Protein: 3-deoxy-manno-octulosonate cytidylyltransferase
Organism: Candidatus Trichorickettsia mobilis
Amino acid sequence: MYTSNVAVIIPSRLGSERLKQKPLQLIGDKSMIAHVVNQVQATGLKNIYVATDSELVANEVIAAGGKYIMTNTDCTSGTDRVYEALQNLDHQQQLKYVINVQGDMPFIKASVILNVIAYLKKSQYGIVTPVAKVGIDVANSSSNVKVVVDNNYKALYFSRSMIPFGATEFLYHIGIYGFRKDTLEKFVKLPQSALEIQEKLEQLRALQHDIDIGICYVDDIPISVDTIDDLNKAIEHYNLLKSTS
């Protein structure tokens, strides 16, 4: 896979509302952002950066062997932070694809990221994002975003509600977005949409402005850390992995 025209940018702000200083929280002997950096590094990609507003986060990135780009504190979304970081790259003209990997998925697998890149490159979509099939026990939480798709693997709608109604199997949305660079630029210049504000899902901005989002299927569902309960689950998972390794 030709990867020199791909950049992975991990947005990581310090001021999380639900979990104080989320990127710095320890999972085992490493901070969460260090885990994410190391997981992304396992892709073998060259252009990997953390976009942050905090010197404390930047120091963790350096300690993990990664690279960072300082961004403004007042970015309205992770995607806006990714785009601002992209503008600060000297070689951005050589890039065609930008992958937004959330900074709160400490066990994200390299294969998921590579699948997104592969599908983005071979498809006609401006945005590609992964999903995994889950049962009602996982889908039932409003923290877990569901998506419905058409027969061409195009997203029709994302919601925190149980969609489609009456289903026994659901498509769980994983928070990684692969953008063609021109689509990313178009997206961040659009105003927030009504559905985006109502559902608190920025991908709905794209759908409401006729930007198609393609779906790729993966098997792994990474732990996303938003609350102290999520952090405790991540720590338990890490300890289990360590005990069996």
Remarks:
- The first helix runs from residue 32 to 41.
